[in-house]
């Protein structure tokens, strides 16, 4: 098969009721982006700390920040236009964050993104920010909070500095129950690890070296964080404490059927999976980049480079995940040493994977089926 060549930019939706801390979290991301160029779509610039970042240009309602980030103030009707502007290769953005306040319900926004015919965007997850101190009161005033939590991929229980330890635990449990399989992390002043939302930028042109982390660096960095003895990565302030990350490497191909069964039954709290999968006889020509956020799943094949070592490398990030069980589950996905002699059976086994491969060139019917596959279960039910 021909892999798609169009680069796709993850679009993260940031939602939460009035005053929950969305803008604070956004400012934190803009300050701790480690070279990643972020496009931000907000309703108004007011609270974004643009002053602290030197504005290098403003055209209409778009502000370009000196640090390579772009900021747009839009209303819902303009969203598509701005997404188009922000996803132009010339903008060279790595991730787009949309602050959902004032727009339609977050699930509407998620639907719009999933249904968008902009081939440059990739849904990057719905993050719901919750004010810990106001949780019960907000729920009473806005019963729809339950629905928002049910479709979220990541819930940030913010302002935990304003509640005691016991109350924090009670809230975590209450939020976790409402948000089902989404990961719940606690935060103060929106200080979450940016890697929960986007990968560090990989810039081929030597620009912004601070952001140039290779996959190996990423694995190494996570090891450092576990041992807390390496610094210099800008991750010193215990951001990782709220979740764990587990890595997996195999030099034996993954059996596509077993691997998909593993993904289908991925445990609650496993918020992100990223990496590359070798499906061996399932597709000898390509390695498959895997991107999972919450219940959203996508594979993007790319041809193996000449002489490239054929490996499966995955990083899994979540809250309360069982590393040993994940390793065991993945180890059981290894294909038999001998390639299956039955070619049609091997091809059929790949169908489950190909369902999650974006194919802009696909014909109408098939594309509709693919759009369905993209919809996270909870959003589809909502
Ligand atoms: N104590 C405490 N205050 C916080 C925390 N996070 C944000 N705040 C404060 O809460 C207020 C609201 O935060 P914002 O980030 O503006 O919230 P928002 O969700 O963007 O608000 P709207 O745009 O009005 O919906 C601000 O005064 C923040 O400084 C936190 O973790 N702890």
UniProtKB/TrEMBL annotation:
<feature type="region of interest" description="Disordered">
    <location>
        <begin position="362"/>
        <end position="382"/>
    </location>
</feature>
<dbReference type="Pfam" id="PF02492">
    <property type="entry name" value="cobW"/>
</dbReference>
<dbReference type="InterPro" id="IPR011629">
    <property type="entry name" value="CobW-like_C"/>
</dbReference>
<protein>
    <submittedName>
        <fullName>GTP-binding protein</fullName>
    </submittedName>
</protein>
<feature type="compositionally biased region" description="Low complexity">
    <location>
        <begin position="366"/>
        <end position="382"/>
    </location>
</feature>
<dbReference type="InterPro" id="IPR003495">
    <property type="entry name" value="CobW/HypB/UreG_nucleotide-bd"/>
</dbReference>
<keyword id="KW-0378">Hydrolase</keyword>
<feature type="domain" description="CobW C-terminal">
    <location>
        <begin position="243"/>
        <end position="334"/>
    </location>
</feature>
<dbReference type="InterPro" id="IPR027417">
    <property type="entry name" value="P-loop_NTPase"/>
</dbReference>
<dbReference type="InterPro" id="IPR036627">
    <property type="entry name" value="CobW-likC_sf"/>
</dbReference>
<comment type="similarity">
    <text>Belongs to the SIMIBI class G3E GTPase family. ZNG1 subfamily.</text>
</comment>
<keyword id="KW-0143">Chaperone</keyword>
<dbReference type="InterPro" id="IPR051316">
    <property type="entry name" value="Zinc-reg_GTPase_activator"/>
</dbReference>
<keyword id="KW-0547">Nucleotide-binding</keyword>
<dbReference type="Pfam" id="PF07683">
    <property type="entry name" value="CobW_C"/>
</dbReference>
């Amino acid at each position: 098969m021909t892999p798609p060549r169009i680069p796709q930019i993850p679009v993260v939706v940031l939602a939460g009721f009035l005053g929950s801390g969305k803008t604070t979290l956004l400012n934190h991301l803009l300050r701790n982006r480690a070279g990643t160029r972020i496009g931000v779509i907000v309703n108004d610039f007011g609270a974004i700390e643009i002053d602290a970042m030197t504005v290098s240009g403003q055209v209409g309602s778009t502000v370009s920040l000196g640090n390579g980030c772009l900021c747009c103030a839009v209303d819902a009707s303009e969203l598509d236009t701005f997404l188009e502007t922000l996803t132009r290769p010339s903008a060279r953005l790595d991730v787009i964050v949309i602050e959902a306040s004032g727009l339609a319900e977050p699930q509407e926004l998620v639907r719009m993104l999933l249904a968008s015919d902009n081939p440059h965007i990739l849904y990057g997850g719905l993050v719901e920010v919750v004010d810990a101190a106001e949780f019960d009161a907000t729920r009473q005033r806005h019963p729809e909070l339950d629905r928002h939590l049910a479709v979220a991929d990541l819930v940030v229980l913010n302002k935990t500095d304003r509640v005691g330890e016991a109350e924090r635990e009670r809230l975590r449990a209450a939020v976790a129950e409402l948000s089902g399989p989404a990961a719940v992390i606690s935060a103060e002043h929106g200080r979450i690890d940016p890697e929960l939302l986007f990968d560090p930028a990989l810039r081929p042109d030597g620009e912004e070296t601070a952001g140039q982390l290779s996959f190996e660096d990423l694995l190494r960095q996570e090891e450092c964080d576990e041992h807390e003895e390496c610094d210099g990565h800008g991750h010193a302030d215990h951001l990782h404490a709220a979740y764990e990350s587990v890595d997996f490497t195999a030099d034996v191909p993954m059996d596509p059927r077993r691997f998909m069964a593993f993904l289908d039954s991925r445990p609650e709290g496993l918020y992100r999976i990223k990496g590359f999968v070798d499906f061996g006889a399932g597709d000898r020509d390509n390695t498959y980049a895997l991107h999972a956020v919450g219940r959203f799943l996508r594979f993007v094949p790319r041809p193996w480079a000449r002489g490239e070592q054929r490996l499966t490398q995955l990083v899994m990030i979540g809250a309360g995940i069982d590393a040993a069980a994940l390793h065991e589950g993945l180890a059981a996905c290894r294909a038999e040493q001998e390639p299956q002699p039955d070619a049609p059976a091997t091809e059929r086994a790949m169908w489950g994977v190909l369902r999650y491969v974006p194919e802009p060139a696909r014909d109408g019917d098939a594309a509709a089926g693919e759009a369905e596959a993209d919809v996270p279960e909870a959003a589809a039910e909502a």
